[in-house]
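Researcher: Structure for this, please.
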Amino acid sequence: MATLKPTIISGGDHRDERGTLSFNNNFDASEVKRIYSISNASKANIRAWQGHKVEQRWFTAVVGIFEIKLVKIDDWEQPSKDLEQHQFTLTSESMDILHIPAGYVSSIRDVVGNSKLLVMADYEMGELKDEFRFDTAYFNQK
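Model: Predicted structure, token format:
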């Protein structure tokens, strides 16, 4: 996927008397090499700011609701502190997938508590050294 900006890949669902089947037939998983999940310890915890210069990620809420903020980094050694933030809400009610291209850092907030976020990555663990972290307050949560 050669997207330069974060995008939502819309999912859907089918409901009948048996229950609900959620799906995302628009997502091409061929680039995914690794899958893991994130659950914040509490609603008060915000996982910010971590990202990747080369790797891309895909996020989907499996349980609950997440607020995801993304910042495109201009300088990996000392990024500007006033960079534009892109905000997305992911809910387990849909199977929307947020594609995060390379070059972004993220802030992940559990909105309702006990939520679980599924994360997919296009590199295997240890395949390259590409993890960048900045202090939680670096980009002043807006």
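Researcher: Any notable elements?
Model: The longest strand covers residues 65-72. The radius of gyration is 15 Å.
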